[in-house]
Amino acid sequence: MSPATRRKPRKSYHHGNLRRALLDEALATIRDRGVEGLTLREIGARLGVSRTALYRHFADKSALLTAVATEGFRLLREDLVSSWERGKGPAEQQAMGVAYIRFALRNPSHYRVMFSHFVDPALQHPELATEAAAAFQALVDSIVELQRQQFLRPDDPVLMARHVWAVVHGVAMLAIDGQVCEPGAVEQLTGYALERLRTGIARTAPEA
Amino acid sequence: MSPATRRKPRKSYHHGNLRRALLDEALATIRDRGVEGLTLREIGARLGVSRTALYRHFADKSALLTAVATEGFRLLREDLVSSWERGKGPAEQQAMGVAYIRFALRNPSHYRVMFSHFVDPALQHPELATEAAAAFQALVDSIVELQRQQFLRPDDPVLMARHVWAVVHGVAMLAIDGQVCEPGAVEQLTGYALERLRTGIARTAPEA
DNA sequence: ACCTGAACACCGTTCAAGT
DNA sequence: ACCTGAACACCGTTCAAGT
Fold this sequence. Notes:
The structure is a homodimer.
Chain A: H1 18-33, H2 40-47, H3 61-84, H4 90-106, H5 108-115, H6 126-148, H7 157-176, H8 185-201
Helix pairs in contact in A: 1-2, 3-4, 3-5, 3-6, 4-5, 4-7, 4-8, 6-7, 7-8
The structure holds a DNA duplex.
């Protein structure tokens, strides 16, 4: 064995995208062991880099989590906009609700960090605040459009958007926290909650 | 100064209810600095007690947080039942919704620990699972009664309860996370969300 | 019974030093 | 530029010892 073939077969430096590798390793660790089980030292060890290599890409642990949350809001917004822009009608808004809850279930690590207040209070980081606001704005936009189409009550769209957000956020949290554990129960709750939500904010009763 | 008058004027042992004092100090620290800012050493120091005194009352840090969560579910259930039993009608169910959100706002430390997954996954502690189930059951009971009174749709009461829970939980989380920060916005969202929720699950349209 | 201080293994972070 | 190893202050937890 030459000295080059060690436990970690690696060139002297970590090549290319260490930042992305750190984010991915953090996401995997959060998925497996939760946010409080995340340690910077173990991330470095798993990637075969020094404990301090991370500080070349993130100011500290909080900055790493902030980056996770920021990326999460961007991915969520992309999912929501993608669903909405297929037709910009009532069916697409229902699809947005499904997409929101599916995002949380498929990206629980992102979702937990986004909403579990592990980042600095009051969204101090401007990037994070911008992405979070953009995701919320996608919801407001769809509500304004459906109000224009006379499908929704003419209430304050921001207030209505907060209500819609509360519903899908509540379902998502119950789902990823395992509070709804029977097989199919998440899908059942998603469908029921979105249908009751629609009835609650619709301009006219569906039978009218 | 005699040796008895030290920095911490205290009898040799902590008298009486150290367990309660530890819980209260933990709640205050969580309120001021968040769950991740909670350290057992500082709690002991603040109470003028050794770092290890806590282990006479709690197995470990997780057990302390589990106790906080368990107490939170008990207090929440008491608030909900108290609101409901004033009349067991539609107005009292609305009051339960208000009480739920007010509980979260008045006891944010309890609420965060209850729902932020700082306790063992899958609610391993039977006491915690029992209290959480009891709080949920109070909601199911009120739904069954209002269905019997023909005020609510005759859907599966557990499914409807999960939906109602998702709505109030979503509003509560947005509120205590400071996502709704303008003065009066929380009360506005609470009133709006509960009214839209009622419309969504009511048996008949209110105008009929 | 309840509490204490020393000790152990661990963590985030800093820094002078390497390539 | 990017990475490294040693060092520092901190934390949860254990344990033999005190009253």
